Amino acid sequence: MPLISANGVDLFYDLTGPERAPVVAFSNSIGTTLEMWDAQARALSNRYRCLRYDTRGHGRSQVRDQPVTIEGLADDLAGLLDALGVERAHIAGLSLGGMTAQAFGARHPERALSLTLMATAAYLPHGWDERAATVRAHGMGAIVDAVLARWFTPEFAAGNPEVVAPMRERFLALDPRGYAVCCGAIRDMDLRPSNAAIRAPTLLIAGADDPATPVSMLEDIRSRIPQAELVVLPRAAHIPAIEQAERTNRQLAAFLDELSGAQPSRSGGVSFEAGLANRKSVLGVEHVERSLQNAGAFAMPWQDFITRTAWGEIWGDPTLPRKVRSCVTLAMMVALHREEEFKLHVRPALRNGVTVEELRALLMQTAIYAGVPATNAAFRWVKETLSDEID
Questions:
Q1: What crossing angle do the helices spanning 176-188 and 70-83 adopt, rounded to 10°?
Q2: What value, to the nearest 5°, has the Cα angle with vertex 35 and ends 211 and 91?
Q3: C-alpha–C-alpha distance, residues 191 and 103, integer Å
Q4: Where would you tag: which of 128, 139, 163, 359 has the fewest CB atoms within 10 A of its CB?
Q5: How many other CB atoms are found less than 10 A from the CB of residue 49?
Q6: How confident is the model over 2-43, as pLDDT tens digits?
């Protein structure tokens, strides 16, 4: 598991992209994990070294139930860069991550090649005590609906359940103590005075329909940071990196490419890094890291082949939605009686939008075309894989 000690706390991280490429460090919003940056890692990892991590108290990073400041979170990021031997990086953050990036730019100016601040604020003191007390007393489920209503526009949430469901699942899995500690960090911050000290090139990205950090808050930051640029994305609420991923990626890539001179690959094939980002997005960072670490010299060419071909060329082809690809993959694994591969793809299928009811219907259909014994085995595999989630 990729855990590393930084600033006195163990942080879970993922590092994907060419080893000598410029590093882009992504800091997540409160209530999310590094997976919120999947689309950006896929888009940029062919020419940038994409560093993502779970903010302390979130996801797989260490939970320490003691107060922390925004400046402390910025020092976590600096410590992570130190631990990985990264001297300077482009810093991108959203919401809490954007606050962390602002503090990083002021506290570690020599290390910030640029800042990208998304859906964030410099001062946001109200409501955090109540939110922290609620999750401590009643758990993350007490606020999940209210939070997700701010994250996405109603139209996006209704039309993209396969995107919203994993976000909800990860939110509910958070440790309330870690979430509450970060609520306190937002409550106590005031980055307005220090913003004037930021000298790194800065791009601000706002969601036009963001109720949590409206455009006016980004305008305020822009007015305080010399030569900062603000872009407002239409039809986006508080998580534009997901709701308007393509627009976000175009703005971010243009900004970074102009500063670094990096160019997208023109080779005609899909790079290992791009395939790796897709593979991690579908199967999970932990599983893919284990596969690569356990491969050894003998099997590494095979890992390179399937990453470039299966995950780069095939899963990276947008012609078929991921939900469809998951259904096709599961059906073929039933027909071929490939238990290990079937089990590997069950949970990713749910994350890709396949419901339990649709999974059952898929298995019923395989009985007609692949045979009752094969489907009987597949029902058993599903129960073994999802034992805590189905009757």
A1: 120
A2: 75
A3: 7
A4: 139
A5: 22
A6: 899 999 999 999 999 998 999 999 999 999 999 999 999 999
Mean of the per-residue pLDDT values of the chain: 94
Quickly tell me which residue has 């800091």 as its tokens. Answer: 27
Percent of all residues in the chain with a pLDDT value above 70, rounded to a whole number: 98
Query: What mean pLDDT is predicted for residues 104-118?
Result: 98
Six token digits for residue 320: 């078929």
CATH class of 3-260: alpha beta
DSSP letters spanning 169-204: HHHHTS-HHHHHHHHHHHHH---HHHHTT--S-EEE
Q: Answer whether residue 263 shows pLDDT above 90.
A: no
Residue 11 has which token pair? Answer: 């942080």
- What element of type H or E holds 133? helix 128-138
Report which residue type is found at 120. T
Q: How long a stretch of residues is the chain?
A: 391
Cα dihedral across residues 192, 197, 200, 201: positive or negative: positive
Half-sphere CA count of 206, side-chain side, radius 13 A:
20
Residue corresponding to tokens 């992570």? 80
pLDDT at 35: 96
Q: What is the CA radius of gyration of the chain?
A: 21
Over residues 79-94, mean pLDDT: 98
Give residue limits of the domains in the chain. Answer: 3-260, 320-391
Residue linked to tokens 């073929």? 332
What pLDDT sits at residue 204? 98
Task: Identify the three-state secondary structure at position 83.
Answer: helix
Q: Which residue has the tokens 């963001």?
A: 210
pLDDT 10s digits, 333-368:
999 999 999 999 999 999 888 999 999 999 999 999
For the chain, helix, strand, coil in percent to 5 are 60, 10, 30
Angle at 143 between CA 172 and CA 6, to 5 degrees: 55
Domain 320-391: assigned CATH number: 1.20.1290.10
Using one digit for the tens of pLDDT, what is the confidence trace for 218-234? 999 999 998 899 999 99
Number of neighbouring beta carbons within 10 Å of residue 246: 9
Assign 119 to helix, strand or coil.
Answer: coil
Q: Please write down the long-range contacts of 157-161, taking CB distance under 8 Å and 24 or more positions apart.
A: 161/353
